[in-house]
Amino acid sequence: MPKGVERLKKWTEGRKPVWCCIETTFINNPKRKATPDEVRAEVWMALIHGADGILYFAHQFKPTFIEAGLLADDAIAREVAAINRRITSLAPVLNSPDVADGATVTSSNQDVPIAFVVKRYDGASYLFAVSMRDGETTATFQLSNRADAKVEVLDEDRALDAKAGAWTDRFVGYQAHLYRIK
To answer: What is the pTM for the complete model shown?
Structure first.
């Protein structure tokens, strides 16, 4: 999906919006569907790679057809609602330009790369990051300005210190972390 977003952005030369459709139900496999955590990760993968919007594939086909399958699953419905609230609250940030070379990241596990984007809005910097594979890693982020900073991890009730603009954080299977840096 992320490469697809990047390709579509390139093919349209940035002149057309690119939206991603996120699967939320049983489609052809009645035994496997995305978990709430996986749906969240897919949304942030799409946004980090430049998607301008998100829509959710809500129909369930197997084992039975349910037109509003997304709403029939309480856990998925709650997670999608939470994701949408967070996206709405961050809309001005997400719609601001990317900060090219705003930071770098290294992953302690080369098999689990970390994708990220840096934005600036209203006096704060934001770094949105997601692990692109199923596995554990520790990511080391380095802000380009190398100034000491406080890093708030949104929706996780924790904060990190970024000495000289650097901090580490742990990621497990397809996990997204959203950082506000002041």
So the answer is: 0.91
